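Re: weekly structure request thread

Next one in the queue (84 aa):
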Amino acid sequence: MELKFDREDNRKERLDFIRKYAEWVRSVPNDVWSSQQAVILNSFMKNAANYALSPEEYLKMKAKSSAKRDTKIRQLSQKKLRIK
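Done, posted below.
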């Protein structure tokens, strides 16, 4: 199944969120934002136990994905060099 979305729109949306969040962090006292960060991190840690993959399986999957991406990048680079 392929997800259909505009990568550039997604990138802009993420950057906009980061800018707004950074602005908010600068505008509130440290104890406010740090306690909220603690809540988020604690929920991540609790949810990690429910994750379908073990850490080893996840890392193996990421390595495989990275290798495929690197191969594709090399192929595209070689293709561009041949065109020029």
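The chain has two domains: 8-50, 53-84. The helical segments are 7-27, 30-48, 55-83.
Next request, please.
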